[in-house]
Each structure stands twice: as C-alpha cells, then as structure tokens.
Amino acid sequence: MATELRIQSGDRVYLPVVQGDITLTREKNSVSVLEFKLLSDKKNLEIVEGNLVIFTSDEIEPKGEMHNIFKGFVFRLRPDKNGFINVTSYDQIRYLKNTDTYVYENKTLTDLLRMICGDCQIKAGADIMATGYVIPSRIEEQKAYLDMIVSGIQLTTQNTGKEYILWDNFGEVALHDREFHKIPLVIGNDTAGDFDFETNIDDDTYNQIKLFREKDDGTREVFVKSNPSRINQWGLLQYSDTLTDEENGDNKAEILLKQKEWNKITLRMIDCFGDARVRGGSSVVINLDTYANMGFAYNGITYHGWMKVKKVTHRFKTGFHVMDLDLEGGFEHG
After folding, report:
1. For residue 233, how many other CB atoms are within 10 A of its CB?
2. How many Å apart are CA 253 and CA 265, to the nearest integer?
3. What is the dihedral of CA 266, 270, 276, 277, to 10 degrees?
C-alpha cells in the first residue's frame, strides 16, 4: 500500500516525509480530521494555517493508481522541543461551524444545505441528494450552520423514516442516504484486534410515542403509538414532543416508534484491517463469533448484520493501514 501527502503553501507544493502514523478521523455528520507529524525545516518546509492538504492512497479499487482520500486545510500547528511539528487539518465541513441566525420556511434539507453552502462560500457538489420532505418553517438563532443542517436531517428522518449523511467528497459538500453508504465489508474476529460492546435501553429507547398539537381553539390533538409487548418487557418508556400544523401526527408517531423501540447497541472494534472507504455514516457487516446474546448472536450462532459507523479512526502506517470503529444502533438484518 502506498500513500502520498501533499501540502500547498502559496505557489509551492511539498511532499514531506511523515514521522510516524497519518491519522484520519471521520465522524458522522461532522468534520473529518487529518493529523500527522513532520520534521521542522524552516529552509525547505514553510507551512502556515490555511495551507491546502491533500492525502491519496492506492489501496482502493482499481488497484495500481492513487485515489483521493482527503482534501482540507491546515488549522493547527504544534511544534515541539525535539524539532518536530504536529499538523492538524480539517476538511471544508469545518467552515460549517460558523454561526448565524436563519429564519426560513418551506425548504427541503437539500435546499437548506445549498443555501448554507452559498453563505459559507464552500462548494456544494453535484452529490447532494434530493430529500423530498419540506420543512414548513424554522427559526435557528445564533447557531452553527452544521447544527442547523443536523436539525434538518433529524426533522427529515422523523417525518420520512429516511436518514441522510452529510460528508465532504474531496472538497465538495455531499449528502446521501444510508443505502448509498453501505459498504460490502465484513468485519469480525479474524479482521479485528479486539472489541468492546454495550447493549442498553437507557439511551433514546422508547416503547411509546406521544405527540401533541395545540389548536387555535385551545384544544389539543394527541397522537399515540406504542408497542405493548415492549412495554410489558421493559416497562413504559415514553417519548413526547409537539407537532407543527403541517406535520402528519399519525405518520410521525409511527416512524418515531419504529426508530426508537429497540435496545441500543454500541460496539467498538479495535485494530481492524483498514478500508479507506469507511467513514462516519457508513454501514458495514459485523460478524462476531461469540456466545453472548448481544442482539447479533444467539446461543453461539453468529449472525451477520449491518451496523452503522458513528466514528472511524484510520491509522496509515508504513506499508499498512488499520482502523478503529465506533458503531451504533441495532442491526439491519439481511
């Protein structure tokens, strides 16, 4: 496996020799971070904040050619007493941390994202999927653009049942649904160094949904959806919220119940064989040979199932690549 790191400073392009690992952290709906250490050389290496950073690798198909992995900008420089300099660079999602106040109505998530990209002066790519659902109205006061987009994602998911992932496609903001980010990659005991898991009904698990809408005449509409068998098993775990005038109460309650009526599984896979396609928001197949009933194995019989990657940390070393995965959710069996 070959990798290449390029830094552009003004009209100069450097191909520096990296000391140790190159680390790429990708979190769902968040900034990707590339970190590395260089030997400080004021004569031959002049790096300042804002310099362009490009990282490529030949490990992705088709083999034998370099593929784009990361494009971003230097935001942090940390020299040390031993003559090295630690560099932290972010992709352009970092600029979505800018804050503003928005008042908008009748916009889809797609519309909102393109509007924000224009205001932030970052490139909205062709890979922004049409999301369909129209957000009736919204007031976002003194919030980060990224938080506004995540709120739009949540509202769209709550009303359609479809989840979307925001990411940076090598210098272009992109938005796709979960299906797009499914990777036919199986990770198990033989491809990971270790794993740690937890299953619980304490974090965002509910077996009854109650939604309210206040009417102009002072009365209240109530929409309730529940799972009696789960209530019998776990006791009543209720989630409540208000509705806008335009939202379909029955439909939203049904969708929320389907999303929240499961026990939550978190799984950390350590030192897995690396795959540069994996990012926060990807789905991969987990295959653990274990005798614990953790929701994906029963009575010692391993079950293949999809899990969502919440965060991945890639470590590119000389000649090889490993990654740590933080996974979430129950399984999408299949």
Report:
1. 11
2. 23
3. -20
Alpha-carbon gap, residue 6 to 172, rounded angstroms: 18
Nearest-CA neighbor of 91 among 272, 269, 279, 327? 279
Structure confidence by residue, pLDDT tens digits, 158-184 = 999 999 999 999 999 999 999 999 999
Rounded to whole angstroms, how far apart are CA atoms 203 and 263?
Answer: 8
Q: Rounded to whole angstroms, what are the CA distances from 298 to 89, 113, 301?
A: 43, 43, 5
This prediction has a pTM of 0.88
pLDDT in tens, 272-304: 999 999 999 999 988 876 544 445 554 444 446
Three-class SS of the chain: CCEEEEEEECCEEECCCECCCEEEEEECCCCCEEEEEEECCCCCCCCCCCCEEEEEECCCCCCCCCEEEEEEEEEEEEECCCCEEEEEEECHHHHHHCEEEEEEEEEEHHHHHHHHHHHHCCCEEEEECCCCCEEEEEEEEEEEHHHHHHHHHHHHHHHHCCCEEEEECCCCEEEEEHHHHEEEEEEECCCCCEEEEEEECCCCCCCEEEEEEECCCCCEEEEEEECHHHHHHHCCCEEEEECCCCCCHHHHHHHHHHHHCCCEEEEEEEEEECCCCCCCCCEEEEECCCCCCCCCEECCEECCEEEEEEEEEEEEECCEEEEEEEEEEEEEEC
Degrees to nearest 5, angle at CA 134 with 101 and 330: 95
Q: Do residues 81 and 35 lie in contact, with contact meaning Cβ atoms separated by under 8 Å?
A: no
Bridge partners of 305, per DSSP, are 286, 333
- Relative to beta strand 320-333, strand 264-273 is antiparallel
**pLDDT confidence of residue 25:** 98
Question: Can you give the pLDDT at residue 290?
Answer: 57
Residues 6+ apart with CB under 8 A from 173: 92, 93, 113, 117, 122, 123, 124, 125, 128, 166, 167
Q: What is the mean pLDDT of residues 123-129?
A: 92
